[in-house]
Amino acid sequence: MIAQGMTSREAAEAMNLSNRTIETHVRTIFLKLNVNNRAHAVSRAIEEGIIRPPGAAGNGSV
Keyword annotations for this protein (predicted)? Predict the structure, then answer.
């Protein structure tokens, strides 16, 4: 959902979770990918093959 440009609030609503839960997961993702913002997280996840580039066939996690 980060790669799709969703905010934490939008992701929380889509998954019926609290915004705080999403923010915790986003921080964990940042730590694991060693990044400090959403754009860099998406870029690193693509580089590592964790997700496909937005707009790619079968978009989403691998």
Answer: DNA-binding, Transcription, Transcription regulation
- Read off the pTM: 0.79
Predicted confidence (pLDDT) per residue in 13-47, tens digit: 999 999 999 999 999 999 999 999 999 999 999 99
Q: How far apart are CA 43 and CA 20, in angstroms?
A: 24
Query: Which residue type occupies 9?
Result: R
* Alpha carbon distance 15, 34 (integer Å): 25
Q: Which domain holds residue 23?
A: 8-47
Please measure the distance between the N-terminal and C-terminal CA atoms of the chain and give it in whole angstroms: 14
Q: Is 8 exposed, middle or buried (0-12, 13-18, 19+ CB in 10 A)?
A: buried
Flag whether 52 is in a domain.
no
Tokens representing 8? 């934490």
Find out whether 13 and 61 touch, Cβ atoms under 8 Å: no
